Amino acid sequence: MKLSGKVALITGAGSGIGAATARRMAAEGAAVALVGLPEAGVRDVARELSATGGKALALPADVSDSNALAAAVESAAREFGHIDIAVPNAGIQMHREDVNLHELPEEVWDRTHDVNYRGVYLTCKYALREMVRQGTGGAIVIVASVTGLHGWSRNVSYMTGKTGLIGLGRYIGVHYAKYGIRCNTVCPGALERTPNHDRHPDPEGRRRNTTERIPLGRLGTPEDIAPLITFLTTDDASYATGANFVVDGGLTVA
Ligand SMILES: NC(=O)c1ccc[n+]([C@@H]2O[C@H](COP(=O)([O-])OP(=O)(O)OC[C@H]3O[C@@H](n4cnc5c(N)ncnc54)[C@H](O)[C@@H]3O)[C@@H](O)[C@H]2O)c1
User: How far apart are CA 70 and CA 74, in angstroms?
Assistant: First the structure.
């Protein structure tokens, strides 16, 4: 088990990539703090992991709320004694509203950046504070998106936030290496579901059009992404920091 004795804090852990990563890390021996909304999601995943012998703690919190997030990180550190791994992963995508920059309502830009960008900044900030204080190093994996590597997304707030996260990962990689803290970003490609999936205007059209462009011929799943995130937090990845890792079935290079 590669994460035995480690404590991982994962945001957006009640579904999708966050839940799959929690399961994977728990299987590698980590204790997992599951942060996110809705409350039922993180509680269900925590119950599932505890029932199979894992150590898990549900911490319902909105990642864009600084006080709530600080309290969640403190609770995790108090409950488990330390935090070694952070996966800022929670994200939203306002598929219908986040289009046409010249007409874009400011509240759409603000809400997307509050969750996807500010939420990651806050998660990194509070996790780094614990890790620096502990003095035993750490590993952070930020979940960005291949959307952040291109200009083709219609969802301008989503795209620009994800581009910013890749820069944030580089910054942390450079500036926290002296504390033994590594930070990398992962860019998933198009998965079977998207954040706020039910609000996508044309899920079947998206599936058809995107699948055609993916060399491996299928959309991804959360279980395709979780192993890479987990690997990057283990000592096997001890020389990787400040880097961006794409896992997209070949979409980006096609
Ligand atoms: N699914 C894809 O196609 C895809 C592709 C690239 C990147 N991503 C990124 O992966 C990450 C995880 O997404 P996913 O695909 O697992 O979808 P998901 O919707 O299942 O996961 C996002 C999680 O974040 C939670 N969340 C949303 N707003 C929150 C808030 N304010 N506070 C706390 N939790 C909140 C959601 O409830 C959900 O549990 C996101 O950052 C997303 O942008 C997804």
Answer: 6
Q: Exposure of 204 by Cβ count < 10 A (0-12 exposed, 13-18 middle, 19+ buried)?
A: exposed
Per the residue annotation, which of 145, 153, 157, 176 is the catalytic one? 145
Chain centre distance of CA 72 = 16
Best of 118, 142, 191, 224 for a ligand 1 pocket test (most atoms within 8 Å of beta carbon): 191
Our answer to whether residue 162 is catalytic in this structure is: yes
Is 121 a known active-site residue?
A: no
User: How many helices and strands, by DSSP H and E, does the chain display?
Assistant: 8, 7
* pLDDT tens-place string over residues 93-118: 999 999 999 999 999 999 999 999 99
Domain boundaries defined on the chain: 7-246
CA 155 to centroid of ligand 1, rounded, Å: 15
Which residues have C-beta atoms less than 6 Å from ligand 1?
A: 12, 14-18, 36-38, 41, 62-64, 89-92, 115, 143, 145, 188, 190-191, 193-195, 222
pTM: 0.99
Q: Tell whether domain 7-246 is in CATH 3.40.50.720.
A: yes
Q: Are 157 and 108 in contact (CB under 8 A)?
A: yes
